[in-house]
TrEMBL record, chain A:
The lineage of its organism: Bacteria, Pseudomonadati, Pseudomonadota, Alphaproteobacteria, Rhodobacterales. InterPro entries: MetI-like, MetI-like_sf, NtrB. GO terms for molecular function: nitrate transmembrane transporter activity. The chain crosses the membrane at residues 6-25, 94-118, 151-172, 192-209, 216-237, 249-270. Belongs to the binding-protein-dependent transport system permease family. It is a multi-pass membrane protein. This is Nitrate/nitrite transport system permease protein. It is found in: Cell inner membrane; Cell membrane. The keyword Ion transport applies. Probably part of an ABC transporter complex. Probably responsible for the translocation of the substrate across the membrane.
From TrEMBL, chain B:
Its main location: membrane. This is Nitrate/nitrite transport system ATP-binding protein. Residues 190-202 have a biased composition (Basic and acidic residues). The lineage of its organism: Bacteria, Pseudomonadati, Pseudomonadota, Alphaproteobacteria, Rhodobacterales. Keywords: ATP-binding, Cell membrane, Membrane, Nucleotide-binding, Transport.
């Protein structure tokens, strides 16, 4: 054990924890009753549908294997593969997120450059920021009159604030020395913005983007539960209505995995723009 | 050029120099800019692998060299150095002063440098402008350095003018800068007095008590 690297030891421990956790879960679920002891009523209802209960991990794994081996099938509006559902969710998240970035980053830049704008806009931002994105949903549905666009709007409104604030904060905090370097080299203001201020503020901006994508992924599930039709959030809710808890647990895990991947993408971007002073 | 180097930490050493050069000569090709920048980095002794490192991977002395190369590579009409070696240790400062003299010798750029190190001033300068204390701080004297170039730190101390000039500067900073402080104007035009100290000049009268001081243009 001592001879192994830190990473190897941590990996062994992770696997161990997983196995222990799954075993406890598996053992905690009482076994389904044998078919021989059916009551009269159950025989009449066709052998008795198994009572709904939290499924053991073995069932979840079997379900995951089944779903992931054919993730993109499409058998009508209520039966689509998990890949298709996740695809819908990701495309909504990315659309709303991209629109938010398109507005938040340039606007944050301007706010960060001007202390007056920062102070003037701050009260509005502080009031709008803590509003739960789902609270916008009725208003969005009424004004936009389209559930798909409303979901995207909700993503937009929830991901704009961290990006806006972090961009403004990052730009306002750029060291004056670096701006002076640009001035002594007689760089124009646009060039200064792109070659000095943007890279200097980039780590803070990317942190804001990373927070935003995390929030957007949290919110899309809830938004899709409300809006319905397609997406991973709808899938969870639909399986709950079907009382298929195996699918519910499986989709919960998938939401976690996709969220982790999205975050890892921005983590990678963050390491690219970080610099050591 | 500033006291704390002011290099952009996300750019490599070379890019820190090309950044300014490209801004100054937008018509140059990329290869031209890189060639010009590498030349100036080589003048301060930064060559090969080092120029692709980030400033955070360089020592303080090396960073200041990059800063010098960046400043000179731009060919400004006047180069203003604000206490550039203040943060360096004495040994590194010595080498970098030599680098500065070398690169200056190659370009003949006008350099205006602010320092409070008297020996550094005598080693580097053609002319030292002395300032009075505040309030109404002003340039009171312009002292010519009558030591021929090329100068080296070990040889100039042997030169007969060295200590004469040095003593004059120390006296000024120690006493007269205070005496002159608060006087709003020195002369009508507020021009600094030009002081020329030359012990090797045969026209100087060796018997005079202050032979080295000869006010010209007062």
């Amino acid at each position: 054990m001592q001879g192994l690297s830190l990473n190897a030891r941590a990996a062994i421990m992770s696997v161990l924890l997983l196995v222990v956790g799954l075993t406890i879960w598996e053992l905690a679920i009482p076994a389904q009753q044998a078919a021989g002891e059916l009551t009269e009523y159950e025989r009449l209802t066709g052998g008795g549908a198994p009572r709904a209960g939290v499924p053991p991990p073995s069932q979840v794994i079997a379900k995951a294997w089944e779903e992931l081996s054919n993730p993109f099938y499409d058998a009508g509006p209520n039966d689509k593969g998990i890949g298709i559902q996740i695809g819908y969710s990701i495309s909504r998240v990315l659309t709303g997120y991209a629109l938010a970035a398109l507005i938040a980053i340039p606007l944050g830049f301007l706010i960060g450059m001007s202390p007056v704008a920062y102070k003037a806009l701050n009260p509005f931002i502080q009031v709008l920021r803590p509003i739960s994105p789902l609270a916008w949903m009725p208003l969005a549905l009424f004004i936009i009159q389209d559930s798909e666009a409303s979901a995207i709007f909700v993503i937009f409104i929830c991901s704009i604030w961290p990006m806006l604030l972090n961009t403004a904060f990052g730009v306002a905090g750029v060291r004056k020395d670096w701006v002076n370097v640009a001035r002594t080299h007689e760089l124009g203001s646009l060039r200064t913005a792109f070659t000095v201020i943007l890279p200097a503020a980039a780590p803070t901006i990317v942190t804001g983007m990373r927070i935003s994508i995390g929030i957007a992924w949290l919110v899309i599930v809830a938004a899709e539960m409300l809006v319905g039709g397609t997406g991973i959030g709808y899938y969870v809710w639909n399986e709950w209505n079907n009382l298929d808890l195996t699918s519910v647990i499986f989709s919960i895990l998938m939401i976690g995995v996709v969220g982790m991947l999205l975050d890892a993408m921005f983590g990678l971007l963050a390491t690219r723009v970080t610099y050591v002073e | 050029m500033f006291q704390n180097y002011s290099l952009l930490p996300w750019l490599s050493t070379l890019k820190n120099v090309t950044f300014g050069v490209a801004a100054r000569h937008p018509e140059w090709s990329r290869a031209q800019v890189v060639e010009h920048s590498t030349k100036y980095l080589a003048m301060v002794g930064l060559e090969g692998d080092v120029i692709h490192r980030k400033p955070s991977q360089l020592s303080g002395g090396m960073r200041q060299r990059v800063s010098i190369a960046r400043a000179f590579a731009n060919h400004p009409k006047l180069l203003l150095l604000d206490e550039p070696f203040g943060a360096l240790d004495a040994l590194t400062r010595g080498t970098i002063q030599d680098e500065l003299l070398k690169i200056w010798g190659g370009t003949e750029q006008t350099v205006f440098m602010i320092t409070h190190d008297i020996d550094e001033a005598i080693l580097l300068a053609d002319r030292i402008l002395l300032m009075t204390n505040g309030p109404f701080a002003r340039v009171a004297e312009s002292v010519e350095i009558t030591i021929p170039r090329p100068r080296s730190r070990t040889e100039i101390v042997e030169h007969p003018n060295y200590y004469a000039i040095r003593n004059h500067l120390v006296q000024f900073l120690g006493r007269r800068s205070k005496e002159l402080a608060g006087q709003q104007t020195g002369t009508d035009t507020n021009r600094p007095e030009t002081v020329r100290i030359d012990r090797t000049d045969p026209t100087d009268d060796p018997e005079d008590l202050r032979p080295a001081l000869r006010a010209v243009n007062s």
